[in-house]
Amino acid sequence: MGASRILLADDDAGMLANVALHLRNEQYTVVCATDGLEALTAAQSEDPDVLLITVELMVDEKMTLCEELSKHPVLRRIPIIYLVGERTVRLGNLPRVPTRSMIFKPLHTDELFAKVEQALSTGKRRRELGRIRLGGSRRGRAA
């Protein structure tokens, strides 16, 4: 199996480049997006293992990327780590997700890597359960 693929989406180009560099140094494959629509398109075409996205990104004038992902039957199964900035906290616009799924900016690399590994583990368990539910398990079948 190749390197785990992470979709990183943030509208701050400096932060995007910095985080992507750290992830690549840890041997992750990183796909970057600078806005919500680009991130949504990449999530559909790049088959990421984890989404690392800024909460505030918009797909259009009315829909955030987070809202759009939660509606999509396939994409909503991909583990998401939400990047949360000071402005979001100040305005009280935190997503309604477990805090284990959030990283507050500025990022600390130890926390980033720990959350990515946790999300990858969660995603692997979800994929295994999906295969079992779809009959992908060979246990109990005649050869």
Q: TL;DR of this structure?
A:
The protein contains five helices and five strands; from the N terminus they run βαβαβαβαβα. The chain has 143 residues and is of the alpha/beta class.
Explained architecture:
The protein has 143 residues and is α/β, with parallel strands linked by helices. The protein is built from 5 helices and 5 strands; from the N terminus they run βαβαβαβαβα. It has helices spanning 13-25, 36-46, 65-71, 86-91, 109-133; strands spanning 5-9, 29-33, 50-54, 80-84, 102-104. The chain has a 5-stranded parallel sheet, sandwiched between helices. The two termini are 26 Å apart. Residues 137-143 have low confidence and may be disordered.
Secondary structure layout plus pairing:
Elements: E1 5-9, H1 13-25, E2 29-33, H2 36-46, E3 50-54, H3 65-71, E4 80-84, H4 86-91, E5 102-104, H5 109-133
Parallel strand pairs: 1-2, 1-3, 3-4, 4-5
